[in-house]
Design goal:
Helix content: 25-40%
Distance between the termini: 16 Å
Radius of gyration: 16 Å
Strand order of the largest sheet: 5-4-3-6-1-7-10-9
Structural class: alpha/beta
Order of helices and strands: EEHEHHEEHEHEEEE
CATH superfamily: Dihydrofolate Reductase, subunit A
Length: about 190
């Protein structure tokens, strides 16, 4: 069975975005981009909430076309065009979308159906609201957390309304020169 992995930047105190979705505190550089490229190259499906999907659609399909496109922009643009996208949204209509599935209801059944299909892990990129829904339905199988060396004090937390403990097993850690630490966990379902 395929696994759903939440792939997200997080502050040291557990926040993933500012109150209006600000992410200007996130540290990214070529070292992190190279690590992310390796990790996502093994995935054929990306899952987004509506807001993150629209942000991605506004940039990645043409990011490689710019004369100033970085290596990361070129590689990620190609991956984005090829990857199957699953979007959780009650407002986006599926008509005319390429390589994209919209889930607007029956979230648990729809996601479990996708998890049963052939393919590799499904990566949830950012998308705090979608991630909250997936966590509450016990559909997240692992976390790739990029812990940024900053304390925000408030904003949008990664973990909200957790009803039961979620036990995790640490799979790996990686320290980047920027001070960001990548933590990879699997959900312990035992």
């Amino acid at each position: 069975m395929r696994k759903i992995i939440s792939f997200i930047h997080i502050s040291l105190d557990g926040f993933v975005a500012g109150p209006n979705g600000e992410m200007d505190w996130i540290k990214v550089d070529e070292e992190i981009f190279d690590d992310v490229a390796k990790r996502i190259s093994e995935s054929d499906t990306a899952l987004y909430g509506r807001v993150t999907y629209q942000m991605m659609e506004n940039y990645w399909p043409t990011a490689a076309d710019s004369t100033t496109a970085s290596k990361h922009d070129i590689e990620h643009s190609k991956w984005y065009k090829d990857v199957h996208k699953v979007v959780l949204s009650k407002t986006i209509k599926e008509t005319g979308l390429t390589n994209t599935t919209i889930i607007s209801d029956n979230l648990s059944d729809s996601i479990n159906e996708i998890k049963q299909q052939e393919g590799s892990d499904i990566l949830v990129f950012g998308s705090p609201t979608a991630t909250h829904s997936l966590i509450q339905l016990n559909l997240i199988d692992g976390y790739w957390l990029f812990v940024n060396p900053i304390i925000l004090g408030q904003d949008i937390p990664l973990f909200v309304d957790i009803k039961d403990k979620i036990k995790l097993q640490l799979l790996s850690t990686q320290q980047f020169t920027s001070g960001v630490t990548a933590l990879s966990y699997t959900v312990d379902r035992v």
